[in-house]
Each structure stands twice: as C-alpha cells, then as structure tokens.
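User: Please run a holo structure prediction.
Assistant: Happy to. Please share the sequence and the ligand.
User: Here you go; the ligand is S-adenosylmethionine.
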Amino acid sequence: MNEVTKRGSAHYNKTQIRSAYTHVQKSYNDFALQETGKPWWDAFLAELQDDDLILDLGCGSGVPTRYLASRGMRVIGIDISPEMILLAKKQAPGVPFICADMETQWPRDTFDGICVFFSLLHLPKEKTAHLLHKIYQWLKPGGTFVITVVEGTTEGLCENFMGEGVPVYLSYYTKEELTSSLRAIGFSVLAVKDLYIKTENFEETELFILAKK
Ligand SMILES: C[S@@+](CC[C@H](N)C(=O)[O-])C[C@H]1O[C@@H](n2cnc3c(N)ncnc32)[C@H](O)[C@@H]1O
C-alpha cells in the first residue's frame, strides 16, 4: 500500500498532485495498461446502452476511458494533470479530454453514467460528500455511477507514491463509509466488491461500488 506518513487534510495540495503525476506518468500508465480494473468497467457497461453519455472524472492516462469509448459510449474525460491528459489524448484519439478539476460544475441531469476510477484517492475526505452529491445531480434520473477506491482508514500525505519518492495526498475508504454516504445522498447501491492487487511497488485492496440515481 502507498503509506500515509503525515496524517490530516492540512497536507492537501493540488499543485503537488499535478507534479506527482508529471513524475509518475510512465509508471502509472504502465500499471493502467495492465487493465486490472476491466471487470469493473464491464460491470459499469452492463448498466449502459450504446451511445450513452459518460463523464470519467480523474481519467488519468485514459485507459478506462478508451475502453468505454471502444464499447460505444460517448465519454468525456476530465483530469487535473496536463501530462495525464496528453497521454489520454494519444491513447484515445477522438475522445474529448479536458484538463480541469473534477469538482468543475456540470448542468443537472446531463450524464447517463459517471465513473470515478481511483481519483477520490487524491481528494480530502471532507470534500467527498459534496462531490458525491454533485455527481448525483449531474446524473440523469436512473443514471449509473461507478466508483473505485483503495480500502483503508487513513488520509494525508504519502511521501513515497508508487515507490518513486514523490509526495502526494492520499485518502483511503472503508466499504461502510462510502456506501452509507452514497445512500444518504439518495443513490441505490447495486454492488460492492473488492479485489486484492499486488505490483512491484505496492499492494492494496481495491473497492468497487456500483450505484444508481
Ligand atoms: C490513480 S489515478 C486514476 C486514473 C484513471 N482513472 C485510471 O483508473 O487509470 C488518479 C487520477 O486522478 C487525477 N486527479 C487527482 N485529483 C484530481 C482533481 N481534483 N480533479 C481532476 N483529476 C484529479 C490525477 O491527476 C490522476 O490522473
């Protein structure tokens, strides 16, 4: 697991998140290309229809985005890191990618589906409920939401992200805290699953939650 060494939201710094991904862009993309999240992408797709409009928040280098687009979805990818957006544009030509904060406002009832694959990892928990509430508003009635996070209980600064000596803010979640937050907002939770992942540089348990507006 990428270990949090300095606890607390006082360590949150968006500029540092951009710098971290400038540094780890190659290793993160190599990891993303292993497509370990494919079962979650397929579970999300199973709730969607051809040509549905999807918002991919924190799309990274665009590997999941590319898969969703290849399966007939109209996807918009958003990421705060200019380098990740450049990689995404190369990997998924034709898909609209925007370098922006995932908290950027969208009109209500716009998307058939919204996915947040591991980007809540870099948001302080005090902002999570507000973002989930916004996501609920941006989804059309009956729209599908999928979120993956890393299981755990801490948040704060990790000084050795992906074993590369780079500092970045990390938040870990339990199943209970995320599902209760989603239900309190009004989502129906359809599925909750976990998956243990081990790579050269880290190991972690990933949580997957599928929900409907
Ligand atoms: C762990 S990566 C996941 C990338 C991609 N979703 C995937 O599964 O391959 C997290 C991504 O979230 C992005 N991110 C972090 N904070 C963000 C924010 N506030 N707004 C938009 N993107 C953000 C990072 O730049 C990074 O690309």
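The chain is about 35% helix and 30% strand.
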